[in-house]
Amino acid sequence: MRTKVTIVYFGFNSLFTHKRGVENVIHFQSLASPSRVNYYLHWDSKVQVKRFENLICIGVKKDMFWFLTLNLILIRLNKNNGKLFIHAHNSLMAIMSIYRSNLLTVHDGLYYLKSATKQKFSKLFWLVEKILYLRCDYLHFISDYSKKMSLYTKENFVVIANTSHFESFKNKPFIEDSDSKKSNEEVVKVFAVRSMEERALINLIIDVAEILKNSKFEFCIAGKGPLLEFYKNEIEKRKLSNIHLLGYVPDDELIQYYKHCDIVIVPAAYGEGFGLPIIEGYLFDKVVIASKVCAIPDVICSQNFLFENNTKSIISKLNVATHAIYGRYKEYYDKTFSNKIIVSKMKELYIKLLIN
Questions:
Q1: Residue 308 and which of 14, 77, 111, 353 are 20 to 30 A apart at CA?
Q2: Which pTM does this prediction carry?
Q3: Least confident residue range of 78-87, 225-234, 328-337
Q4: Which residues lie below 8 Å from residue 213, measured CB to CB, with a gap of 6+?
């Protein structure tokens, strides 16, 4: 780079409290950054500065004056660090910033998400998304599907998949818990990492568990969300002992569930611009079955593991998966989604954009 450039990321949550989804993506993009200094601007309860590895994280207090706070921070960064290269994930920040975004990462199209939930003012988001693209020079989509469902029509874009921060955890010792030792070897453990919301179709897994309550299948679901207590009550009401909702599970424990399970399941109704639990399953060499919707068919290793969103189809694919537990899923991850490959692609993109 001939000119000193500082990369500034627009995100959502603090990396000290969240590190899945968007936060995970931003962290790995920062590892690809050729900039000596990288900043991460995110919502917070107050304006504060912390360091997370190679990112200087600045909290923007989300109140009625947040856009003023954001721009005052950007003006100061521009004054102290020279030219800014803004890489946005947060649409609101990208629109309200006094500086254009040089690069925008699109996880899911705004209008697509709002129309999928049939929100009353979804048409407003059509306009917002169009304005957003006018304020960005170049776009990065995390899948062909996220590009397809966006309103972007120009040629200044690239598709680069996500990767998993669990690579650094993977070689930690396998923890054999007491429940696992007591378990019958015939039990097939099915694991899911899903948000407890309607689009994740937890109700469908519960229905499947009820049908298979006298079978060899046992289901565990990690994740929090607004419907967690509702689903817990539903399981209790049906008196099911073969399905367990774990709530929030920290990363150190989550990887143990991935290691212990036999099958990973990813149901979805909409809003899956990528499907992180799919590649996490492959990282731990597990067979994955998932809904035949959104970006999932682009990410999954074989169309044979896709199911329709009904109990009959899911049960059929569970039976297929039990005969395919020992596959080369880790190899597929290494060739397609590894940290090394994804960071390399992001480095190439940054260099291309910074030279231009």
A1: 111
A2: 0.91
A3: 78-87
A4: 240, 241, 242
Specify whether 182 is located in the same domain as 239. Answer: yes
Q: How far apart are the first and last CA of the chain?
A: 10
Handedness of CA 280, 286, 287, 290 (dihedral sign): negative
Write the DSSP symbol of residue 323: T
Which residue stretches of 185-267 are H helix?
202-211, 228-238, 251-260
Residues 287, 209 within the same domain: yes
Same-domain status, 185 and 314: yes
How many domains in the chain?
A: 2
> Is there a single domain that holds both residue 60 and residue 203?
no
For residues 37 and 183, membership in a common domain is answered with no
- In terms of domains, do 330 and 344 share one? no
Q: Which amino acid is at 192?
A: A
141 contacts 150 by C-beta, under 8 angstroms: yes
3-state secondary structure of 83: strand
Neighbour tally for 318: CB within 10 Å: 22
CA atoms within 13 A on the CB side of 48: 10
Supply the Cα-derived Rg of the chain in whole angstroms: 21
Q: What is the domain-level CATH number for residue 85?
A: 3.40.50.2000
pLDDT digits (tens, 9 = 90+) for 147-164: 999 999 999 999 999 999
Domain limits at 259? Answer: 166-336
Residues 140 and 172 placed together within one structural domain of the fold: no
Tell whether 12 and 159 lie within a shared domain.
Answer: yes
185 pLDDT band, cuts 50/70/90, is low
Neighbours of 294 (CB within 10 A): 26
Q: Is 140 helix (H, G, I), strand (E, B) or coil?
A: strand
CA separation (Å) from 211 to 129, 208, 218, 279? Answer: 43, 5, 12, 28
| AA letter at 289 | I
How distant, in Å, are the alpha carbons of 40, 64, 231, 310, 342 from that of 237?
45, 43, 10, 21, 45
In angstroms, what CA-CA distances link 52 with 39, 206, 311? 10, 39, 43
H-type helices in 118-268, by residue range?
122-134, 144-148, 178-182, 202-211, 228-238, 251-260
